Amino acid sequence: MRIASSEFADDPCSSVKRGTMVRAARALLSAVTRLLILADMADVLRLLTHLKIVEEALDMVKNATNEQDLAQRFKEFGKEMVKLNYVAARRQQELKDPHCRDEMAAARGALKKNATMLYTASQAYLRHPDVAATRANRDYVFKQVQEAIAGISNAAQASSPTDEKQGHTGIGELAAALNEFDNKIILDPMTFSEARFRPSLEERLESIISGAALMADSSCTRDDRRERIVAECNAVRQALQDLLSEYMNNMPRYTLPQIDLWKEVLRVNIDKMEPPASDLSIFKPFL
Predict the structure, then answer these.
(1) Which residues, other chains included, contact 148 with Cβ-Cβ below 8 Å and sequence gap of 6+?
(2) Which partner for 125 in 22, 138, 177, 231 could form a disulfide, CB atoms 3.0-4.6 Å apart?
(3) How far apart are CA 89 and CA 7, in angstroms?
(4) pTM
(5) Is Hydrolase tagged as a keyword (predicted)?
(6) How far apart are CA 38 and CA 100, in angstroms?
(7) Contacts with 126 (C-beta within 8 Å, 6 or more apart), sequence order
(8) In whole angstroms, how far apart are CA 104 and each of 29, 42, 51, 148, 282?
(9) How many CB atoms lie within 10 A of CB 50?
């Protein structure tokens, strides 16, 4: 890239050197993008590793047999929790999706809240193992901690089931809108009315294009695909205008009231014709 840009700076009018520099810039951009993706994957892997360690420490706390053992294991659990909270907080700041960011914050809050109750619930169970309420309370707190850990994992990987459902719903709605629009543009030129059909068709198309624009602006959409989506949207918009113009060109030149008036005038003229020509009156029933 440095060599290509230097050569182009020396001869900026050369189309060959300009093309070489552009290709070098694209290659550099692609390499930087891959590097950023790898760095992001490394951060996610680091967070998942900490989650695994916290899960193992949580199991150790759950399997404690006495209060002294519980205190020692919970101390180790607390140390791992501090590390996890630091890594999860950094990941939360880096998330671009607002929904994933909110989910991460909620999971971190739930984990912090239930982790403080974990020691008390476990201690009460060890003191009164025969009481069903203490066992149920401990199991409930453990379940809440496990769900919070799973929430952090889902948010970090953007693999929340609700997100997946919402994504498919959006794509399905766009596909359904395209199918509906495809059916709406099939019109009879004899009954076409510009004032009636043009506004509704243009409004439907702009709504579809807005949905496609959201997909194009997504951070997951590649640059080449984004450009293609924009180009296709413009092409479809122009195609609709061409189709409406074609419908207008094939409309009947005269309205039905005008045709009825001309029919009546023709009938009157036939009645006024001389007798030799009155044989044309046989066509009156067809007018």
Answers:
(1) 107, 108, 110, 111, 114
(2) 138
(3) 46
(4) 0.49
(5) no
(6) 20
(7) 64, 65, 66, 67, 70
(8) 30, 18, 13, 9, 87
(9) 19
